[in-house]
């Protein structure tokens, strides 16, 4: 029954053009010739006296199905500069398969592997890594909660708690820790700052008086 449908199908197309059997292709001379096998392409069409002459795909090209073509497909290039490496080498019958290198994730995945890769997002100071990046997913970052800091954008660490005998010399932020010190040192720093401010004001006053 299937053969009947195939024949009827060919008959229906005869008015539009040549209908060849499976594993055959139509030439420009409107002749049906046997297809070349995988890994090869047509070098010369068949004639009434000889079959199709096929030639093997050259290095860097491939053909993955029976065909009547005169050019092989170009192998996919796995560019390390764009985060890719060769997982499976291209052969006469199969294309190369690319995979991502460490530190990258695949943005476009198809039957031949990864075709477009991108670097993992780098979390900035004040953030931590919520989800580390994989070969298929980008890294996810989140800000440090209040009372924590991240100097390098990896983990959040809680602020140092100054002891009862210490004074807070510098408040903590999302990127820096609290700085603790002796209370006497803080008192000294306040006196020094006040003294410098007083001297500056006196000098400014003297300068103004001289101008008058």
How does this model look, in words?
The chain has 212 residues and is an alpha+beta fold. Among the domains are: 14-74, Tumor Necrosis Factor Receptor, subunit A, domain 2 (Ribbon); 77-119, Ribbon (Tumor Necrosis Factor Receptor, subunit A, domain 2). The chain has helices spanning 2-13, 183-211; strands at residues 24-26, 32-34, 40-44, 53-56, 61-62, 73-74, 84-88, 97-100, 104-110, 113-119, 127-131, 140-143, 148-149, 157-158, 166-170, 179-182. β3 and β4 form a beta hairpin. The longest helix is centred in the C-terminal third of the chain and has 29 residues, at 183-211. The N and C termini lie far apart (118 Å). Residues 1-9 and 11-15 have low confidence and may be disordered.
Task: Give a summary of the structure in a few sentences.
The chain has 212 residues and is an alpha+beta fold. Among the domains are: 61 residues, Tumor Necrosis Factor Receptor, subunit A, domain 2 (Ribbon); 43 residues, Tumor Necrosis Factor Receptor, subunit A, domain 2 (Ribbon), CATH 2.10.50.10.
Write the layout of secondary structure elements.
Elements: H1 2-13, E1 24-26, E2 32-34, E3 40-44, E4 53-56, E5 61-62, E6 73-74, E7 84-88, E8 97-100, E9 104-110, E10 113-119, E11 127-131, E12 140-143, E13 148-149, E14 157-158, E15 166-170, E16 179-182, H2 183-211
Antiparallel strand pairs: 1-2, 3-4, 5-6, 7-8, 9-10, 11-12, 13-14, 15-16
Disulfide bonds: 33-46, 36-54, 57-72
Domain TNFR-Cys: 19-54, 56-98
Transmembrane segments: 188-209
